[in-house]
Amino acid sequence: MFYRESGDFKTSYSEDSQTFPIKFDRLRYYAVLAVAFGIIPLFINDYWANAVAVPFLIYAIAAIGLNILVGYAGQVSLGTGGFMAVGAYAVYKLMTAFPEVSIFIHVILAGLITAAVGVVFGLPSLRIKGFYLAVATLAAQFFLVWLFNKVPWFYNYSASGQINAPERTVFGVFVTGAQTSAMAKYMFCLVMLTLVALVARNLTRGTVGRKWMAIRDMDIAAEIIGVNPLTTKLTAFAVSSFFIGIAGALFFAVYLGAAEVGEAFGIQKSFLILFMVIIGGLGSIFGSFAGAAFLVLLPVFLKNVLVGTLGWPTDLAAHIELMIVGGLIVAFLIAEPHGIAQLWRVAKEKLRLWPFPH
Amino acid sequence: MPDQLVYAMEVTLNGLMTGVLYSLVALGFVLIFKASGVFNYAQGVLALFAALTLVGIQNGQVPFAHMINAMTGGHLTDFGWHIPAVIAILLTGVVMVLLAIVIEKLVLKHLVNQAPIILFMATIGMAYFLEGFGDVMWGADIKTLDVGLPQGINETIEIATERWFGYGFFIDNLDIVATLIAILLVTALTVFSQYSKQGRALRAVADDHQAALSVGISLRFIWILVWSIAGFVALVAGIIWGTKSGVQFSLSLIALKALPVLMLGGFTSIPGAIVGGLIIGVGEKLFEFSIGPMIGGATENWFAYVLALVFLVFRPQGLFGEKIIERV
Q1: Which residues pair with B247 in a beta bridge?
Q2: Average per-residue pLDDT for chain A
Q3: How far apart are CA B224 and CA B1, in angstroms?
Q4: Where in the sequence is the domain holding A170, given as residue range(s)?
Q5: Complex ipTM
Q6: B230 lies in which domain range?
């Protein structure tokens, strides 16, 4: 009834090729933006920001980045944690070296540095494919973590080997450091996520995205019809690492505040983000959001139920949580291997015909 | 003979023995990958689970004691008996076979024909589940595993090398025993897959699922069989690594050590897993010994991966992998 193309007349090319061609989708999109920017910041408190909102926003950025690489370009990567670490350490070095420059610019620069590192580790993808590539990206994961652990220059020779985010402001409001309010953290990450999602969505709709998808579907065939595998694969690695680097920078500077590389950016992080992408849906920007939301909310929910309601000891609850998360992932993969995005797609198809399905 | 050379020889010997252990874990991967096309990340956790179960059975722990206590407020810990190692190992073997059947019934059966990445993620999900399950069942504290394998420095070798080189090599008895066990296991597996009926069926399935089905080989039986074998290999690996460094979470990380071995040797090749393991074992020990001190040490975490990566750039199918032929 509400969700259909008919009656929504396009009178120009730009209208015809807009991101959301269906009116209901557009309105929903503006409504989500209005709620996210206008209503949530008024009510957000420290618990909700730290436990749910900020991790969700940051993981969503990382998941969009990885989804571009895995879902759109078909190059499986297990090095996400390592690339996030590059973003984190880049932003730390920039923040401490140039305190007068805005943190906003630092975060973007950190993304660019990560993109360069990503391209270097993406080079083998021209020779190595499939699982061999996935395991090869683990080289990036382990090497980068080791590098940040062993070379004191990266953590400014601090005695603990940790990096601590100094206090920085955007328009006079603290966004990193101890004085940051929940709202500032939330808004800063939200702005970043919105920008990233806009760029990603439009890249994947355009020439670049179509080249990625051609390479994903069959790289030899794509090469024959004139898609250059070198530039296509490397742009995928670059764009993906750029977003992941931003996520890493925010994860360290805004969310954690202090980080130790092996703990914050270990291989578990790589798997977690890959899970988000797969559960959300490969090759879907919406899926990245859905996957991130699912895997951020699930442990919070389980912890509240097991420890808060049932009153079990925390270590036991942690193990049971691991079991439930693992079991749910397997169950999810069996029930809907194409992820939450596929459920969403099916729902939209149904909506189009509703309430007269024939 | 110059000192450095003698040290390097000792390092090489130790590297070879570590390499054998890597091969052992890699072997489990190769078996499952060949027979079902599943890249089984859970192999390391299987080893952890096997070792936990073995310790639990040996010491007569009550399964799920922690959880039962939390729910009922009781103080259960163990049954108060101690089971001989051999029987405990057999019982653990039975548990691993049961686990293989459950995995086949609940997970693999439903994922036939899915993309490899989905199967891979499913095994990571299984790894999470098993890790939590093992901890809930047997408790998460670090346990010592003792099934009577000899440990400590081998004095015969020390005295002999002392006489030859003027420097006694430090070789652990456990490593020697582990090497012997690994050789035995590989021989047994090769004989099994070459000469037994089930082994032939297994190779047929690895070659072509459809053709194997059409001549009447039960795929599901083969999958249960191969996961049981992988479980058994995991048990052996779990016993050796558990004896070496205690049964704890880090045991499951040996899976990560086996991955570069697989890359180097090729995912589908049993000899590749062995040779790859030896190369990685020796390579990382020698690198740590020669270059490590210059660049801060602890290079063992990544050296194997970088070596495999560089190698693959020149030979994408690995040492013994089948030649990759691509068609449009």
Answers
A1: B143
A2: 89
A3: 54
A4: 44-266
A5: 0.83
A6: 3-255
